[in-house]
Amino acid sequence: MSIDAKLKELGLEIPTPVAPVANYVPYVISGNLVSISGQVPIAGGKVAFTGKVGDTVTKEDAQEAARLCAINILAQVKAACGGNLDRVVRIVKLGAFINCVDGFTEQPQVANAASDLMVSVFGDKGRHSRSAVGVNALPLGVPVEIDALVEID
Questions:
Q1: How far apart are CA 100 and CA 58, in angstroms?
Q2: pLDDT in tens, 98-125
Q3: How many CB atoms are located within 10 Å of the residue 67 CB?
Q4: What is the value of pTM for the model shown?
Q5: pLDDT at 21
Q6: Distance between CA atoms of 132 and 134, rounded to whole angstroms?
Q7: CATH number of 3-15+38-152
Q8: Alpha-carbon distances, residue 69 vs 2, 32, 42, 45, 104 (angstroms)
Q9: With contact defined as beta carbons under 8 Å apart, do 98 and 54 qualify?
């Protein structure tokens, strides 16, 4: 099954890639690796979630934000692959940054929403290494930012 067919089966629509908000590029291709800059939970051109997990953002809302970050990662990968997600050989790594209060220790459960999406879309090719780190602030006041390393053909 093609990735586009899988996305349709999952009811996922890949948006237009989010433009950078500072002096960087959204992705860099080096050989067969694509490094995706950190993606934040933007939908329809607007920040969909703001706040700190464990304070104004619940773990469940943070998981939704992480899922949206993963969808935005897919949009960047699709752009890097000339519109063809079937070129993805492997999701190599995700790096999840969770803007959270001191004492919050469920960063892995928040990041799982992004990891689960990658496996749902790509199957075994979506299994990846990962970091899930708590931080005290993120750009635009978002609760989650996720970057990625992807192997393509």
A1: 10
A2: 999 999 999 999 999 999 999 999 999 9
A3: 20
A4: 0.97
A5: 82
A6: 7
A7: 3.30.1330.40
A8: 22, 23, 8, 13, 20
A9: no
